[in-house]
Amino acid sequence: MEGRIPVRSFRLDGILAQTLWAIAQPRRAADAPISGVVLCRHGAGAPLTSAVNHKNQNMTSEIGKITSWNDEKGFGFIAPNSGGKPIFVHINDFSKRHKRPVLGLSVTYNLSRDSKGRICATNVSPEKGHKEVTKADNQKVFSAFLSGAFLSAIIGLVLLNKIPNIILGVYLVASTLTFVLYAKDKSAAQTGKWRTSEGTLHLFSIVGGWPGAAIAQSQLRHKSKKLSFRVVYWLTVIINCGVLGWLLTPEGSYKLKMILKNINFG
Question: What one-character DSSP code corresponds to residue 109?
């Protein structure tokens, strides 16, 4: 029949027009790739995905609060401060330098997608605090407490006239010099220069520099793991404290006074 458009041709033209229109439309924000994407190591039963980092300076951090957390399974959700749906977060994407997440913790994070294209959080870390207390942190506290308590005891003995002022001076000077020697030796170890011998470090410790050595070992992280060195170091502490204890006896006090008198210190 003349002038009649075939039904099949009309349908094909309609499908083609719809396809071209869809291609021309801008992609939805939810479907757009995230700048500087790092694949989330998605948990909740899904296998871990290798992190592929495409670094991008335009990658900005978001801020939110953990409103749901399953510590047993190691995942939860972050409520963005800017609003919107909660963002999935897995423990493998949380900072290893901090304690495990807890409810109400304010965090910074980057938006990303997992291997299945689902939005999640990566590079997650607390806004402030919540740091994991490490063995090194405990050693710093212990060495500072030990050195401070010992030097305070020495000051107390001086004030009670149990030992002369020069003993306090020896400990302070020796500790300062010992700390400097540790710092110099660490620098030499890093730059390949001439090292300070362990014997020299122990000698300064035994004559009264061990409080400074304790602080140097913990603060500078130098000679703090070598077992043989640590054993000898603690022997120097015991010997030094033993000599100090002897100087507090009548015999030791008398001999110290004679020595100081002979070298014109009193």
Answer: E
Amino acid identity of residue 68, one-letter, is S
**Distance, CA of 51 to CA of 39 (rounded, Å):** 5
**Cβ neighbours around 151 below 10 Å, total:** 16
Indicate the class that CATH gives domain 32-126.
mainly beta
- What does the domain layout of the chain look like in residue ranges? 32-126, 135-262
φ, ψ for residue 118 (rounded to 5)?
A: -85, 140
Least confident of 47-56, 80-89, 202-211: 47-56
**Given this model, what pLDDT does residue 126 score?**
85
pLDDT confidence tier of residue 35, bands split at 50, 70 and 90 = very low
pLDDT of residue 23: 54
* One-letter amino acid of 44: A
Q: Whole-angstrom Cα distance, residue 71 to residue 234?
A: 41
51-76 tens-digit pLDDT: 333 333 345 788 899 888 888 888 99
Residue 196 has pLDDT above 90, yes or no: yes
Exposure on the CB side of residue 225, measured as CA atoms within 13 A:
5
**211 closest CA partner among 248, 167, 176:** 176
The string over 173-182, giving b where at least 16 C-beta atoms fall within 10 Å of a residue's C-beta and e elsewhere, is: ebbeebbebb
Q: Which residue has the higher pLDDT, 105 or 131?
A: 105
135-159 helix and 165-191 helix, angle to the nearest 10 degrees: 160
* DSSP one-letter string for 31-100: GSPPTT-B-----TTSPP----B---TT---EEEEEEEEETTTTEEEEEETT-SS-EEEEGGGB-TTBPP
Residue 105: is it exposed, middle or buried by C-beta count within 10 angstroms (0-12/13-18/19+)?
A: buried
The count of residues in the chain is 266
